[in-house]
Each structure stands twice: as structure tokens, then as C-alpha cells.
Amino acid sequence: MTAAENKSSIGSLFRNRVVRTILLSALFLQIGIWVRNYSILLFVMEQTNENPVAVSMISVAEFAPIFLFSFIGGTFADRWRPKRTMIWCDILSALSILAVLTWMGIVGWKAIFFATLVSSILSQFSQPSGMKLFKLHVPQELVQMGMSIYQTLFAVFMILGPVLGTFVYQQFGIYVSIGVMGVAFLLSAASLLMLPPDRVENSNEKAASVMQEMAAGFKYVLGSRALVSLGGCFAAAGLALGLTQPLYVFLVTERLGLPKENLQWLMAVHGVAMIIGGALVMGLASKARPQVLLTLGMTVSSLMMLTMGLSTNFALTLTAEFISGLFMPCIHIGINTMILSNTKAEYIGRVNGILNPLFMGAMVLTMSASGWLKEMTSIVTIFVTATVLFGIGIAIMLPLLRLRGTGSSQGGSGSAEMAS
Q: Is it the case that residue 176 has pLDDT exceeding 80?
């Protein structure tokens, strides 16, 4: 692709009304999510004197609903109108924030977990609806580029989010932080009003029951070589990330001997690298196969995970975090492109609802035990074990490298083309 063609493609992508609106909604949601994540983390650590079990329970409250509600949410996302679903999910999330503000004065600080719990549940209905809109309104040849731009937004908040969340909490306290979350969800809902009206489908297949549609979703995934392999990779990677994600703060406090607030600088470096990596992947969007991007990203990230676990030097840890972030867009863009390219629009919700629980269920399993495992072993053992698990996920992905393409979901099943 020439520079002129690339510029034209990016321009046409941003002229797409749905893309612009989803990016604006994601902007507001990222503000609310990062303020939520860091204010709750710092608040719980202060309330519990940095208890690792309590800290790990924050992540359990965030990710357990993904395991429990992902398939249900994905199934209903395929049945419901996506615009209306997304708007109501944001409104209900904002109302849950108001409930938390009330309950904290009654039941105490533990009510803060409810804010994470409810928004996580509702996201299982909203997120697949957003992907469905993306599938319906973005041309196939621009999907990987669109995923690159979307990922860049998340990378920006890897830099701004921790700083913003820490600043809001330290300057204004937990109540104002919770209020910021609620306002962010409402602004997201308001922005989604700019989406075009939902398409009203006149199809006799709508008579199918929820259980029939769930069964059809499993059949669709099991018929796809790519999606089955991706599911196995998800499970292995989930086990690895579940061990490390709740305990990153202890890399700072124990391995590096620094105050917990320094975690934000690791996240900031990671975010800068993700922006750079996202731009590089965007340039390769029309050339690199998504399965190659995914395998490369996982391999480099696993090596950097091991380095961070062993390091006691702040500069080395920062360098490993930077390299990990540089290749992280390969993982996210590869996964999303593979799913969108190999799934029909009417199955997007259910495919996400099947694959996400494999990842999140495995993550929640090890996440729930990570605090106790750290108390019995060490943070080094945790990160070494996670590296081994990540390696298993890479091994599962290797057969996909022999596939010639990413399949297509425009005409019959993309799974048939992937399996050929």
C-alpha cells in the first residue's frame, strides 16, 4: 500500500460515523475506568494496610462477571439492537455509581467493590454490541487498521489513565473519584446518541429461542479451526495473567523497594510503547497476518514478563515494560482482527461470549488464588510460573502460522476457509 493509499484509507475510516462515535464513547469510558481502577486500588490499599488478598479481590470483582455473564451478554447482544443496548448499559452503570455513593455511608468502604462489579457485568452486553456495529459498518479491508486506531486510544490512556486516576484520588478523595466515574458513563451514553438508528431486521430466524441461539454459537465456534485454537490460547494466557495482574504493585514495593504510587510510571512507559507499537502495526495492517502478529506479541511479552519478575533494577524493569508495551498492540489487534475476520456479524456476540469466558475464567481462577500464592511463595515465583503458562499459549498458537489467510465472514462460514 502506498502512502497516498494509506492516507486515503485512514481518512475514509475517520469519515465513518460509527467509528467516530465509538471512539468518542470509548474516550469517556476510558476516563471513567482508569479513575475507577486507580482510586479503588489506592483506597483499598490504604484501608487494608496493603493486604495482597484484598488487592487481588479488586480484580476478581472486575473480571469474575466477565466469566459469568460474557456468553449470556453476547447472546443477547446478537438478539438486541446494538445502539440501544450500549446506551442503556452506560446509563445503568452511572446509576450504580449513585448507589455506591449512598451505600458507602451505610455499609462502609467495602461497598466500593460494587462499582466495579456492576460496570463489569454491563460491559458484557455493551462490548459485543460495539463490535457488532464495527463489523456491520467498517469495510473488511479497513478492519485491522480500525483495530490499530482503537488500540492506540487505549495506549494513550495507559499513559494518562494512571496519572489521572492517582491525581483525582489524591487531590479529591474517593467520593469525588466515584462521581467522576458516573459522569464519564453518562457522557458516553450521550455520545452514543449520534449513532445511526439500529437496523430493524425482518427475519423468520428471530423465532429461535435463546437456548437454540446459544447452541448455534457453540456449533459455530467448534466448526472453526482458528477460533478453537484461539480459545486454547486464551485459556493458557488467562491463567498466566491472572497470577500477575493483581500483584504488579508488589513488583514496585518489594522487588524495586519503591512507594506504591510509582506503579503509575511503569504503566505510563507501557502506554508510550503501545502508542509507538500501534503506529508500527498500523503501517503493517495490510501486510501482516493477524495470527503472526498475535504469536510475535505473545512471545516477546512472555520474555519481558520473566525479566520484570526477576529484575530488582528500576531501569531494567522500565525497559522490559517498554518492550512489552511495544509488542502489546500485536496481541490485541491480532485477536480482534482474527475474530472479526472469521465471524459473521450475527455471531459476533456469541463468539466473544464463548472465547472471553475461556480467558477470563482462567484468569479469575488464578487471580483468586494469587494473593494466597504470593504469601506462600514469592513475587518471583509468581512471574516465573506465569511465563511458563504464557509459553503454553504460544505453543497452541503455532499451528495457526501455517494458515494462509484469516478467513472471511462475508460469504459462508469463515471457519471453513480457515480449516481448509
A: yes
Long-range contacts of 307-312 (CB under 8 A, 24+ apart): 308/251, 308/383, 309/244, 309/251, 309/255, 309/379, 309/380, 309/382, 309/383, 309/384, 309/386, 309/387, 310/380, 310/383, 310/384, 311/255, 311/256, 312/255, 312/256
d(C-alpha 191, C-alpha 134), whole Å: 16
The dihedral built from the CA positions of residue 63, 67, 73 and 77, taken in this order, carries a sign that is: positive
Chain centroid to Cα 104, Å, comes to 28
pLDDT one-digit tens code per residue, 232-242: 888 888 898 88
Q: Which residue has the higher pLDDT, 202 or 375?
A: 375
Give the whole-angstrom CA distance, residue 346 versus residue 132: 8
Question: For residue 8, what is its C-alpha cell?
Answer: 486515503
| pLDDT computed for residue 306 by the predictor | 94
CA-CA distance, 227 to 87, in Å (whole number)? Answer: 29
Which pLDDT value is given to residue 285?
60
Backbone φ and ψ of 278, nearest 5°: -60, -40
> What dihedral angle (degrees, nearest 10) is formed by the CA atoms of 316, 318, 319, 322?
160
Phi/psi at 203 (5° precision): -135, 140
Q: Which residue has the higher pLDDT, 310 or 417?
A: 310
Query: Distance between CA atoms of 73 and 213, rounded to whole angstroms?
Result: 12
